[in-house]
Amino acid sequence: MHTENNLSTIIQYLITHNITISSAESCSGGLISKMITDIPGCSTIYPGGVCAYSNEMKKKWLNVKSSTLEQYGAVSAETALEMAQGIRNVTGSYYGISTTGIAGPGGGSVEKPVGLVYIAVVGPNYQRVEKLPLNPNIPLTRATIQQQAAEYALHMLYDSLKPKEMQNEV
Predict the structure, then answer these.
(1) Rg of the chain, C-alpha, whole Å
(2) Backbone angles phi, psi at 136, to 5 degrees
């Protein structure tokens, strides 16, 4: 899915359209931030991000509700949505993106297996949460789950923003 050119195209699109974004990451461990900040010129659209791995930090830094974590768990569509809303509110970015999931190799269960990841994109009058569609041709390792989550989050953001005629460009 990801190539350097595709990511560069996404960031250039955001820069050209002056669309600011911030990231709230759990399972991707800051990889979205790294991917964005690897592209020259990103400072005009990326004020920053947070790697909130623990529930305490999700609550403290991103204003994720305790009730959400108790009812749905840290790995849930509801938590991903609150994380994205939280980072958007904290940074004042136009869009917030988030990832939360189980990167493994441990920590999974029957209900929430290793590889389960939720990604959210939130903007003005817009919110979208998706379960990461893992690529079955890539072995499920911690690194590949994190990579797929970060790439999918950025593509999900881009697909949400770009005009329909550009949908197949990246």
Answers:
(1) 15
(2) -70, -10
